[in-house]
Amino acid sequence: MDLLAGISAGTVTTLVMHPLDLAKVRMQVGRSRTLGQAVGELLGHPRDAYRGIAPNLIGNAAGWGVYFYLYRQAKNALDAYGIQKTPLTLLSASFSTGVLTQTLTNPIWVVKTVMLASKRSDANAAQTSWSAARQIYKCDGPRGFFRGLIPGFGGTAQSAIHFVLYDLIKPHISTDLPDPVRYITSSFFSKSIAAVLMYPHQVLRAEMQFKRIGLVEAFRLVYQENGFKAFYRGLSANLLRVVPAVCLTMATYETTLDLLGGNK
Predict the structure, then answer these.
(1) Which end of the chain has fewer CB atoms at under 10 Å, N or C?
(2) Where are the Solcar repeats (predicted)?
(3) How many domains does the chain fold into?
């Protein structure tokens, strides 16, 4: 049930939020300097608004499905071995689940970044996910599909923090409120905190994947641009995308579980 609920959540969220994801990636790699510029470019080229939707849809549906399933199994294992569910044990369970999910889905995210960072009109721009994958393989071989994996674990840490905060906050939200409101409120606060804390890893990861460089070089180039402020470029677009996206994801996931009887 967690697998099906996660797939449903990832699919719905991606279909709704993809244009903002595209704007965020273009800001991270320096293609657009402001959110207004990124949105303006999309409005001027509406066909680009859903460029790269295929790998994003596949990655999110598969990623959320696998993550929710494995996280549930990890929490069940804590119960089975009599281990108390403290913030630390939940953080460990969430992080280890995220590392495995991130490793399995990283090739999809590399293809997605290459697609979203370029425009259809760019010279040599990949027009399909398959052509983007061929470009990556031709330039870097199999290793190219795992670019950004290490900083990607920063995203795993962000998700781990979010889920621990979510599990801690949700019981304190009034049960007099409708369930979807409780899910959204818990998600809003937990994800906002986690997203701001862990955002720099996303800039480094996008830089590595788009420019095909290592972590140290990516850090140097980003810092050289505008000091530590550069590590938060695209933050506004990210918060506008990721906080509503996670609220939608969690509400869809929890509601689907309710319908399937998995939250009983």
Answers:
(1) C
(2) 1-77, 85-172, 178-259
(3) 1
